[in-house]
């Protein structure tokens, strides 16, 4: 397993729409292992393939707490098939937007269909943190960032801050 470098805002790669996988094979399974390793190293609770520069529809999540046994989840070609009318608000952060957090309102429950690591069709009904995390990571696959769900003023301030930081690294 290899820890991959994370793509950081304002990199335009984060705005790409990811393409689905046609088949589940050993290369895809290796990619999911690398993504999990990268996520654990960061550390984070979710990671979309686009965040390591791979514009394909896969994400990984692990909501286990520190000290608990890891519970990695791999979602290939995930798709939200239904979402509740009730809403919930969570403070979200993102490995591609380090050290920035904001409250985001999303549907409280979602049903997601996807392929697992073996290529079998699965479906999960999620609420709480898992629902939020799935929506956040699926947004990534569609070129959407969590800051797109906050006010325009706050979003522009964050983008400006990260653009400035990126320019100072180049010099």
UniProtKB/TrEMBL annotation:
<comment type="similarity">
    <text>Belongs to the polypeptide deformylase family.</text>
</comment>
<keyword id="KW-0648">Protein biosynthesis</keyword>
<protein>
    <recommendedName>
        <fullName>Peptide deformylase</fullName>
        <ecNumber>3.5.1.88</ecNumber>
    </recommendedName>
</protein>
<feature type="binding site">
    <location>
        <position position="136"/>
    </location>
    <ligand>
        <name>Fe cation</name>
    </ligand>
</feature>
<feature type="active site">
    <location>
        <position position="137"/>
    </location>
</feature>
<comment type="function">
    <text>Removes the formyl group from the N-terminal Met of newly synthesized proteins. Requires at least a dipeptide for an efficient rate of reaction. N-terminal L-methionine is a prerequisite for activity but the enzyme has broad specificity at other positions.</text>
</comment>
<dbReference type="InterPro" id="IPR023635">
    <property type="entry name" value="Peptide_deformylase"/>
</dbReference>
<feature type="binding site">
    <location>
        <position position="94"/>
    </location>
    <ligand>
        <name>Fe cation</name>
    </ligand>
</feature>
<dbReference type="Pfam" id="PF01327">
    <property type="entry name" value="Pep_deformylase"/>
</dbReference>
<feature type="binding site">
    <location>
        <position position="140"/>
    </location>
    <ligand>
        <name>Fe cation</name>
    </ligand>
</feature>
<keyword id="KW-0479">Metal-binding</keyword>
<dbReference type="InterPro" id="IPR036821">
    <property type="entry name" value="Peptide_deformylase_sf"/>
</dbReference>
<keyword id="KW-0408">Iron</keyword>
<keyword id="KW-0378">Hydrolase</keyword>
<dbReference type="GO" id="GO:0042586">
    <property type="term" value="F:peptide deformylase activity"/>
</dbReference>
């Amino acid at each position: 397993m290899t820890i991959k470098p994370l793509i950081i805002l304002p990199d335009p790669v984060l705005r790409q729409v990811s393409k689905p996988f046609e088949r589940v094979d050993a290369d895809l399974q290796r990619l999911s292992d690398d993504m999990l390793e990268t996520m654990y190293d960061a550390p984070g609770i979710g990671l979309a393939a686009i965040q390591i520069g791979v514009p394909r529809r896969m994400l990984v999540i692990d909501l286990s707490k520190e000290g608990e046994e890891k519970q990695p989840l791999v979602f290939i070609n995930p798709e939200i098939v239904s979402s509740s009318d009730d809403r919930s608000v969570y403070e979200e952060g993102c490995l591609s937007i380090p050290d920035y957090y904001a409250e985001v309102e999303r549907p409280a429950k979602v049903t997601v269909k996807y392929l697992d690591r073996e290529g079998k069709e699965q479906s999960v009904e999620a609420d709480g943190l898992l629902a939020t995390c799935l929506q956040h990571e699926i947004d990534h696959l569609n070129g959407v960032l969590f800051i797109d769900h906050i006010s325009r003023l706050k979003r522009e301030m964050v983008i400006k801050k990260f653009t400035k930081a990126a320019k100072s690294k180049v010099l």
